[in-house]
Amino acid sequence: MATTTRQIIEIDEELCDGCGLCIPSCAEGALQMVEGKAKLVSDSLCDGIGNCLGECPQGAIRVIEREAAEYDEAKVEQHLKQLKLQQEPLEAARPVNGGCPGAASRMLAPAAEPAAESEEGSKLRSRLRNWPVELMLVPEQAPYYDGADLLISADCVPFAEPNFHGELLDGRVLMIACPKLDDAQFYVAKLSRILSQNNIRSVTVAFMEVPCCFGLVHVVKQAIEQAGSGVDGRAVRVGIQGGMDSEFDLRELPF
User: Fold this and answer.
1) Residue 98 confidence (pLDDT)
2) Which of 49, 63, 54, 52 is nearest to 26 (CA)?
3) Are residues 107 and 85 part of one domain?
4) Most buried by CB count within 10 Å: which residue of 44, 73, 248, 255?
5) Is cis: bond before 254, omega within 30 of 0?
6) Chain centroid to CA 218: how far?
7) pTM assigned to the model
């Protein structure tokens, strides 16, 4: 294979936290997640333009000049076709609403008293208003979305924050997801449809303090922008040992 000295991207594995936000920005499919890190899978797939640079919150990607295989458009076309073939079975296998009885959409009646404050020895009450809660399984249209305040929570947050039901969940419709293990772009598209098809009043995204979890904030912000709904959005960061240590408006983010 012919090589030449040209511009090509380079990924610093020490800085990469595996959030995967750079993957969708590469139109050639040259970036893939390998063992929890973003990797350039082939020099000949990278055009060196660097559209992925601005998507990395850790600054782990840069454009350098080195000897590399020439950019090959024919190989890119073949590679993208192969990726599409690999993706089709995954899309077909995605759960659909009603496919499993346990995933049937339900509107729940939360307990009347606050869950966060309870006398010693008494049981806390659930504030859950909807079922299912996995973002992969939630319906795109449901009665409980009308005028709803959504809570998009990283699935680790309820385990870390002891006041989750009282401080975050109370009065909100819940969806949970993992920005590192799940398909972020599938979630962007699904959330965008939910926001555009329903009368959503606000969106709160709760994420963990670990760097890769910030990817969920990117997902929610992109979905709001794609939906063009103008819905109010805010983010809340939760510490590993609990506590909500910061809160900000999604419109304040530079990306």
Assistant:
1) 47
2) 52
3) no
4) 44
5) no
6) 6
7) 0.62
